[in-house]
Every structure is written in structure tokens, then in C-alpha cells.
Design a protein that fits this description.
- The protein contains seven helices and no strands.
- The protein has helices spanning 38-41, 56-66, 72-85, 90-143, 153-159, 161-180, 182-199.
- Helix 3 runs parallel beside helix 7 (182-199), helix 4 packs antiparallel against helix 6 (161-180) and helix 4 (90-143) runs antiparallel to helix 7 (182-199).
- Keywords: Signal.
- Residues 1-17 form the signal peptide.
């Protein structure tokens, strides 16, 4: 008996269309990578002694710069004002500012990526449930001796409206995932842009 609903039961979301992921629980087309490397985006001085959060002004500005609520076009003037007031330790404080900004962005990025993984696992569970429910519905209709092809997606959805609803939920979540998958990339771009803006003031 033909039980599979090709349209309804596709496990891959649109974000998977670019090819198989390295991690089975990573659903995004963009490759899953570790934390943003300091060396990859920073050409300024090496790490100075002390921590960025030991300097209250550095810490406050790092949090403001790292927050996605702060438009990037506002970052330049904020960094410029800080550099002018940084005094003799300008290079050290700007480097600590970068360190803090990168730490905070990496922390946010790690949370986003963990949430994406949990979301993808939920999608897999939902897809498995829809498949199981569709198979049960097809079996039940076949046992009643329907003459039509009751395993066709449109016929099953008409006979079992809950399957259509589950498919809609699955598709809506898949569509949302394509946007969520952009978040780690946007954070990487933000870290790079801020690193460049800070370096220009050294």
C-alpha cells in the first residue's frame, strides 16, 4: 500500500535545500562553525593584562555595541567619543573594548545556535508525528474499502483536516527557520564591522 504523502511529509526544510549539514541537528544552509575567532577579525594589539569587564566604561560600551538594538551606524560615533576620552591608555582600553564586544557577541551567537538546534529537533519530531498520523489515517480509510486513491495528499487532507493543519504548522515553522538561520551570520558580520571600527581609532 502506498502510504507516503510526498508533499506533506518532507522532512527537509527550505533551509536544507543547499545540501546536507555537517551536524544532523543543524538545519541551516550556512555551515555550522564554532565561536568567532579573535584572530579572524582583529588586526590590532594582542591581549593586554586585565579583563574588559573590570573597566566600567569599557563594559558599558561593549554591551551597547554588542546589542543588536544598537544600529551599526551609531557605533562609529560612540567608539570615536570613547577613544577621545580614553586618555593615555587608549590602545589598551580600545583593545579591551573589542574583547568585550567579541565575548558578548559570541555569547549571544551561541545562544541563538542552541535555540536553532532545539527548533530543528522539534521540527523532526513534528514531521515524524505527521507521518505516523498520515499512515494511520491511510490504513483506516483503506480498511473501510474506499475506491478512490485515499493515500493521495489532497484526499487524505480532505478526509482528515487535522493533517492539513499539522502540515501548515510544519510549513510555517520551516519558513520561520529560514529567517532564524540568518541570525548567526548577521552576528558574525556585526563582530567584523565593530572590530574594524575600533581598529580605526587605534
Amino acid at each position: 500500500m502506498r502510504k507516503i504523502l510526498p508533499l506533506l511529509l518532507v522532512l527537509a526544510t527550505p533551509a536544507l535545500a543547499g545540501g546536507p549539514p555537517v551536524d544532523d541537528d543543524w538545519p541551516c544552509q550556512q555551515r555550522k562553525t564554532g565561536a568567532i575567532s579573535r584572530a579572524a577579525i582583529w588586526a590590532g594589539p594582542e591581549v593586554f593584562s586585565g579583563r574588559w569587564d573590570d573597566d566600567s566604561q569599557v563594559a558599558a560600551l561593549a554591551r551597547k555595541l554588542a546589542s543588536r538594538r544598537t544600529p551599526l551606524e551609531e557605533a562609529g560615533p560612540l567608539i570615536d567619543a570613547f577613544a577621545k576620552e580614553a586618555g593615555a591608555d587608549k590602545d589598551k582600553r580600545l583593545t579591551l573594548l573589542f574583547d568585550g564586544t567579541l565575548d558578548l557577541i559570541n555569547g549571544e551567537r551561541a545562544k541563538v545556535m542552541a535555540a536553532i538546534t532545539r527548533y530543528a529537533r522539534g521540527q523532526k519530531a513534528l514531521a515524524a508525528k505527521v507521518r505516523e498520523d498520515a499512515d494511520k489515517a491511510a490504513d483506516a480509510q483503506e480498511s473501510q474499502g474506499y475506491g478512490q486513491d485515499i493515500t493521495a495528499p489532497d484526499a487524505l487532507e480532505k478526509a482528515h483536516p487535522e493533517l492539513k493543519w499539522d502540515k501548515r504548522i510544519f510549513d510555517d515553522r520551516a519558513q520561520a527557520l529560514t529567517y532564524v538561520c540568518e541570525s548567526p551570520v548577521l552576528l558574525e558580520k556585526r563582530a567584523f564591522a565593530l572590530a574594524r571600527a575600533i581598529q580605526e581609532k587605534l
